[in-house]
Amino acid sequence: MPKLVYFKMAADKEAIAIVLDVGPSMSESPPGTSTPLQQAGTAITMILQRKIFANSKDEIALILFGTPNTANELADGEEYQNITLVRPLGLPDFDLLKYVQNEIQPSNISADFIDAMVVALNHLVKQTEGKKFGGGKRLILFSDLGGEFADDQLDDIVNGMKQAEVQLNVIGPDLDDDDEDEDDRGARPAANGHSKPKSAQQRAGEAMARHLLSQVEGESYSFSEALPALSYFQNRKVKPTPWKCNLEIGNNLQIALAGYVRVVEQKAPNFKNCYAKDIDSEVTTSRSYHLDDEASTEVEKEETAQGHRYGNTLVPFSEDDIANMKLKTVKCFKLLGFTETKNVKRHHFLGNNVQSFVAEKDDEAAGVALSALIRALHETNCVAIVRKVYRANSDAKLGVLSPHIKAGYECLFYNEIPFMEDVRQFTFGSLPLEPDSELNKKFSPSDDQLRAMDNLIDSMDLSKTSQGDEEEEEALKPKLTFNPHLQRLYQCLQHKALNPDDPLPELSPIIADYLKPPQEVLTNCQSHVEKLKEVFPLKVVVKKKEEVSAKSMFQDKPIGDVPASKKPKLDDGALGDMKQLDKVKVTKVGTVTPVEDYWAMLRRKDEDMFEEACKQLETVIIDIIMGSFGAQSYPKAMECMKALREAALKHLEPGVFNKFFTQFKKEMEHYNKMDLFEMAKNSGLRLIDNEECEESTYSKDAVAEFMSDDVKKEKKEEEEMQEEDADDLLDQL
Prior knowledge:
Blueprint: E1 15-21, H1 36-53, E2 59-65, E3 83-90, H2 94-102, H3 113-128, E4 137-142, H4 154-164, E5 166-172, E6 187-189, E7 195-197, H5 200-216, E8 219-222, H6 223-230, E9 243-249, E10 253-264, E11 289-290, E12 298-299, E13 306-310, E14 313-317, H7 319-325, E15 332-340, E16 350-359, H8 364-380, E17 382-389, E18 396-405, E19 410-417, H9 438-443, H10 447-459, H11 484-498, H12 509-513, H13 519-535, H14 550-554, H15 594-602, H16 610-626, H17 634-650, H18 654-670, H19 674-682, H20 700-732
Parallel strand pairs: 1-2, 1-4, 4-5, 5-8, 9-15
Antiparallel strand pairs: 2-3, 6-7, 9-10, 10-16, 11-12, 13-14, 15-17, 16-19, 17-18, 18-19
Family: Belongs to the ku80 family.
Keywords: ATP-binding, Chromosome, DNA damage, DNA recombination, DNA repair, DNA-binding, Helicase, Hydrolase, Nucleotide-binding, Nucleus
GO molecular function, one term: telomeric DNA binding
């Protein structure tokens, strides 16, 4: 199949004349299949859609032949009849799109496609005279070539197209089936598998088209080839603008380079606000600033300032502060050093694009120097680490330059890489890989299992798929694979523009195919999937759930004498599995598992529960102490206070714990429970000082004084009171 040269849009604008046959042969097709005219209308619609959505500057003219009327500049007497110039050369719009979709009607009049090409060529030449069309001029003929024609002007057409540099494309029947035997002629396969008889006139027309294409080096496509390629919407492609810089190597060597964006993420078009009842009315946005008070007092923007959080405090920065704080830089592209390719990992690549760097145009010395650098990097298997500053006072970036050598060109690929602060290190548990490990012996895969998995991976290799008898080629190549999300969005936009009151259309089958693995890959891997099921047998394991009763949970039995499998699981059943706490929204700290409830509330991501969780935990601590039978529940209270202290440190809120611990001491004094405060001290609980957390208002000495002197004093007073009570009792006796 020839390359679809037309469908590759150029950055410079192009002049296109579309010539469509609406004669009787275009309306004939086997039952249940679309006619050639319908397929041609679909193809032209797709061409217009691509141009409109890409905001293309290409200009399009539409000429119909086989029409009942005649409207063209060359019509004279009986020449160039039944040919209509529907739309002169100009930018495509929705009016033209609607005309193609709704107003093109078949006719029973046959016209000469050679005459129609002459009309189109004449219009192209006249309309482009004195104008700049860097993308060139193109004539696209849509016809099944079943109408009568005259070849007396064939030489004039060939010479005119060559002189005007007009490219020719013919979309219609498959012109590559001219090697059929005479007995096989008379039928041709349609795109859907049905056949339509070929007339002698049509075979003559195809022969003429082949001759014409060979003379002007044009291309032909069948509808089955053109429609899938045209079904994709393309965005506007603009002329690339290079980033010019000097690669600084040391103090005395500089290479003039130009960087071009090679790969960049394509963003979906932004939606604009509009008034639903009148889309032509302009909608403006106004913004105001208000204080967070009862009156919502409005303030001017000039009275506001940006602020950065420092602990629980917002520190304001004026525009002058921000300007002075910013690192002063100058534009540069400086080589820092070299390293082996293996030292730069693929997952270290940052940024949203990849750039290609080549020597600056017409600088021969730079080309020689860059070529030497590229080949040296390639031969030593190394890459260059560089510092990049795009413009003065912009952020400095760290990047890696990798050599890329092809038959026709060579360049350096630039990828941004992280600084130390950008890297996140994670530590995961090791797998039991020791040969003597029991787990390794139990779960180590067998040779058959390894072989089955290797074969499955090989069968799903996208770089070695093939199409029928063709050579192996890569499937889903990035430069040939469209983003289905964007394609679906454009499909819906086009439909709503033409049919505003209709529901959105179904997903295009061609777009849907991109969401599925290639059919050949599925076919190749099917047998290996079955083998994988065979060597990795799976069995459904039904876990018997033990019944939990109050007797089994609360009966008094010596746990040490009971086997582990028979011990009651207090975390299951009635009390709930603690592992499930993360899966539900905990809104209250209970007295059964207060620490787990507290941490579960802090882990909630939908709402900041720190303040509320701390208040509830403080209340629970007092309730546990006051409701304790003797000292039975004191250890649980200690664990709660430890959790409160740990969370206060983690959230940089030491005041929360210090305030509670100070009040706790006062309460213990009031209720004569200073032994409990001594227990808290022995368990490691103390106030948070400003060395442990800068936000604390307590110094280390103040904390030591709080924890020592008062306790000794209280203990001494308590001992004196006990002695006095004993003396009073002896006196009474």
